[in-house]
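User: Please predict structures.

Assistant: First:
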Amino acid sequence: MHILLDLLHNLKITEEFLGKTKLNTAADEDVHEERRRVLTTKLPIRLGYARGLMTLVIFYNF
């Protein structure tokens, strides 16, 4: 009997967790997509800055 109660309790907790997860998933996907767009637009600028630093380091070391 005790095992059955534990099983039912765990099932209820799992259902609650999955239900909350499904509700938040759509909103989270929008946030992650927006962050991805912002980060990829800044990527070429950062690469250009890094290349400039590398050329300075190489130029002054030789």
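Second:
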Amino acid sequence: MWQMHYIIRVKFNQSYADEVFKIYERVAILVFYLYNLPHYLFNFFRIPK
């Protein structure tokens, strides 16, 4: 992740690198959240039994 950010920063300007890195960061957080959501829901609904 940081290697890509460094490469983008070198090839382009600082503001563009920050914008692209923010997009990558949001996508990574979203994928992580969606990947773990079923597990959390399963545990949440399993506990009351």
